[in-house]
Amino acid sequence: MMLLELQDIHVIFQRGWLRKRRGAHAVAGVSLALEEKGILALVGESGCGKTTLGRVALGLLRPTSGKVLYEGKDIWGRGGKGLRPTGQTVYQDSYSALNPVRTVYQTLAPPLRRYGTPRKRLREETKKLLEFVGIMPPDYFLNKYPYHLSGGMRQRLVFARAIIPKPKLIVADEPVSMIDASLRLSILDLMLRLNRELGIAFLYITHDLATARYFAQAGRIAVMYLGAIVEEGRMEEVLERPLHPYLRALLSAAPIPDPELARKRELMPLREAEPPSAEHPPPGCRFHPRCPYAQEICAREMPPLRDLGDGHRVACHLVEMLPPWRLT
Amino acid sequence: MNEAILSIRDLVVEFEVREGNLRSVDRVSLDVPRGAFMGLIGESGCGKTTIVQAVMNLMPENGYIRAGEIFFDGSDILKLSEEELRRVRWEKIAMVFQAAQNSLNPVLKVSEHMVDTVLAHRREPKSRILQRAARLLELVRLDPGRVLDSYPHELSGGMKQRVVIAMSLLLDPELLILDEPTTALDLISQAYLMERLREIHGELGITMFMVTHDVSNVAKVADRVAVMYAAKILEVGSVEEIFYDARHPYTRGLINAIPSIVGDLSEKRPIPGLPPSLINPPPGCRFHPRCPWATSICREAEPEMEEVAPGHFVACHNWRGIQGRRQ
Q: Strand pairing partners for A147?
């Protein structure tokens, strides 16, 4: 069974408080599923609605329309209260996620207590938890405050706290983008361990295709553009055979730490380099004003997400007519 | 290699903070060859931005240049008077700061920015300034007819950043310093900006010095690269030497820690441990606590820069012994 299913989710933010006006259509008809113990990377640029969708997935935000099914049950339906996902979030900024006047011990002990650890064993359990997430030696860190810790250590602490309620799902929203390059993989490796050893499913939200590929190698990827999913499938398959022109443009722009490859590769020419405003998305396919292949139908109709077999889904009217893909 | 347009010698910069003296740049020497596109890479807090602040003599209040010389075109700019320095800045050395797109004045049109910038340095008819501004905007692929007449809020982040770069070129500087020029831009605008920088470098023959944490951007545009770690420069070489034949364990570890959208991921590893405190740095080589090959000498003596091949410099005691060995 699917752990989480999003069905035709729309989120429209209202503006103004006296006379409500329709504001930004942040999520426009997204359907996605995440298996138990699965990994899904949700990739998109800032303003595409990926963070909003992450909040919907956890039941933190009620969608304007659409269903959120958690273990098959509608969390906003009748009797849905209490079915809120046993999910946790981890955000980009670990510093603001932690209470600055609480030590490491004071951060972890209350939730441990609340989830059933006997008072006598709190210290021991806290130390075990620290060791598990790689904050070592635990004795040294127990009485440290968040500002004593490096960004990487703080993010580990946030993950330690997140796993206390034994969640089945963690939504990690840009968890490594404030972490130094040499340490980024160590946090992604920690997330992979939580997935493998504790069976926690991950929705990994990021703008960075390279870390998405690293973390979700064995999982799936969904690419989001201005509120809609434009392509979705197994990571390996999608990166090998990307179809949607937006994903191709992203791949042609993604940084590659190799001078020869980086110089050989050409940036896909877009009709407009700059993204349009997320608040007034263009009609039809939202990518059509920038798309080099766009035809008349693209301006008129929003393309549905079509399954091309093998679970590789693409929302593009012209899929069959696109030239073959080559990165360099 | 060409002679150096910018030559930093034994530079020491300290910040006075509550906990003591934080030595952000520690006896750093670095040459930027004339005509080069040089990249300086390092992680946050390693001191790379401090080097730039020292070169422009724009130190924050609690920052002090304790020792060293910075030669530009042969003369030490640390010895210049405020007025002489003002002439060097922007006329000879221009700079694009981090998130510079936010440095535009919201109530001035782009054309007014351009005119003001030039008039602050010399008298020139407005029409001539605008002509040159239009040419430079075309160079960064902006439509001068539209952009000159726009206010900053009418432009996207990527366009503003390109306006700032065009502005920085107005006085025909010999050296353009870029500090994290792509911060806060979306991926496609970033890639686009990098391509424009590469083109400008080729067309104008200007020397570029780009400071960044983004290893991949350096791979794309730089022809020479310096690697900084904990207030020290550890390795300098051509972009090929740094990416394909790095000798310093930190350089090798850093490049191997960057995930990519292509290639094998199974060999990718983070560097274990954490960068040291700059208030109390470890003795010997600053990288030794994280280095897989550290020996006793690394804990005792600070390694000096050695030239391992013409133009390729490394500060590591053991570079000979570890060549070709895997991490």
A: none
> Which chain A residues are Cβ-neighbours of B44 within 8 angstroms?
180
> Which pLDDT score, from 0 to 100, does residue B327 have?
58
One-letter amino acid at A254 equals A
- Chain A positions in Cβ-Cβ contact with residue B262 (cut-off 8 Å): 256, 261, 327
* Residue B51: closest CA among B9, B112, B94: B9
Residue for token pair 């360099």: A328
Torsion angle in degrees (nearest 10) through CA of A178, A181, A187, A189: 150
Distance from CA of A133 to the nearest CA of B (A): 14
Token readout for B107 is: 């109530």
CA–CA gap between residue B252 and residue B271 (Å, rounded): 10
Q: Name the pairing type of β-strands B175-179 and B93-96.
A: parallel
Q: How far apart are CA B165 and CA B172, in angstroms?
A: 12
What letter represents residue B152's amino acid?
A: P
Against a cut of 0.80, is the pTM above it?
Answer: yes
Residue B312 has pLDDT above 90, yes or no: yes
Contact B259 A211 (CB under 8 A): yes
CB contact under 8 A, B188 and A253: yes
Query: From B158, which residue of chain A is nearest by alpha-carbon distance?
Result: A274
Give the ipTM of the model, two decimals please. 0.87
pLDDT tens digits for A45-81? 888 899 999 999 998 899 999 999 998 889 888 776 6
Q: Which two tokens stand for residue B263?
A: 């290639």
What amino acid is encoded at B309 in this protein?
Answer: A
Contact B192 A257 (CB under 8 A): no
Q: Give the one of B43, B159, B261 whose C-beta lies nearest to A180's C-beta.
A: B43
Pair A298, A326: CB distance under 8 Å: no
Element counts in chain A: helices (H) and strands (E):
12, 12
CA distance A30 to B61: 51
Measured between beta carbons, the chain B residues lying within 8 angstroms of A257 are: 215-216, 219, 243, 255, 258, 260
Q: DSSP for B58-121?
A: ---TTEEEEEEEEEETTEEGGGS-HHHHHHHHHHTEEEE-TTGGGGS-TTS-HHHHHHHHHHTT
Measured in degrees and rounded to the nearest 5, phi and psi for residue A7 equal -120, 110
Preceding omega of B33 cis (within 30 degrees of 0): no
- For A78, residues 6+ apart whose C-beta sits below 8 A from its C-beta are none
Residue A150 pLDDT grade (very low, low, confident, very high; cuts 50, 70, 90): confident
The confidence score (pLDDT) of residue A17 equals 64
Between CA A274 and CA B12 the distance in angstroms is: 42
- Three-state secondary-structure class, residue A236: helix
| DSSP annotation string for A260-317 | HHHHHS-PPPPS-SSPPPSSSPPSSSTTTTT-TT--HHHHHSPPP-EE-STT-EE--T
Compute the count of residue pairs across chains A and B with CB atoms less than 8 Å apart.
122
